[in-house]
Design a protein that fits this description.
With about 160 residues, the chain is α/β, with parallel strands linked by helices. About 55% of the residues lie in helices and about 15% in strands. The chain has two domains: about 55 residues; about 90 residues, 2-Layer Sandwich (Transcription Regulator spoIIAA). Helix 3 links the parallel strand 1 and strand 2. The chain starts with a helix and ends with a strand.
Length: about 160
């Protein structure tokens, strides 16, 4: 099954969860129980719609989405400090690109000034997702400090490096 097919299957599962929560909420008698099921249904619906939206944006030709078109190498260029504070934003960028199913994920670290151990958590998540779907990960232009952090944490064994600096 293709990456887009899996994404749509996940969206369908969330839509089914939203419908089940609405159905169960209609049968619950206390009003607080109905509210709880309504919140669960709204959350599931939001996740499903966001999944469909990102899938549709990455499929449009000429779109400015985070993911590449089919057959193109995905390049994510990071900059600044990658710490516990910025890990969420970096993780969302990498996840959006991986959701498009590129043949190769290249992460450019040429403009990264600091990579902390907490910030490197995002690379573990990205590498785990990429390897589960058979996507090789390449780290390019890694300065000394970020490269040393990745090496200390053991990521050298699961990623490739290019354009050594």
């Amino acid at each position: 099954m293709s990456a887009r097919g899996r994404t749509l299957l996940v969206a369908a599962a969330w839509l089914l969860a939203a419908a089940a929560a609405l159905g169960a909420g209609a049968r619950v008698e206390p009003s607080w129980g109905r509210l709880l099921f309504l919140i669960a249904a709204a959350t599931a619906l939001r996740i499903a719609l966001r999944t469909i939206w990102h899938s549709a944006r990455s499929a449009r030709p000429g779109s400015r989405s985070a993911g590449p078109g089919q057959g193109q190498q995905a390049v994510v260029r990071l900059r600044g400090e990658i710490t516990a504070v910025t890990v969420g934003r970096t993780g969302r960028r990498l996840s959006a690109v991986l959701a498009a199913g590129p043949p190769v994920l290249e992460i450019g670290l040429g403009r990264v000034t600091l990579l902390t151990r907490d910030g490197a958590r995002v690379f573990f998540d990205a590498v785990r997702t990429a390897h589960a779907t058979g996507i090789p990960v390449v780290i390019s232009n890694a300065p000394t400090q970020p490269r040393a952090t990745l090496h200390t944490l053991g990521l050298d064994r699961v990623v490739h490096y290019s354009n050594e600096t």
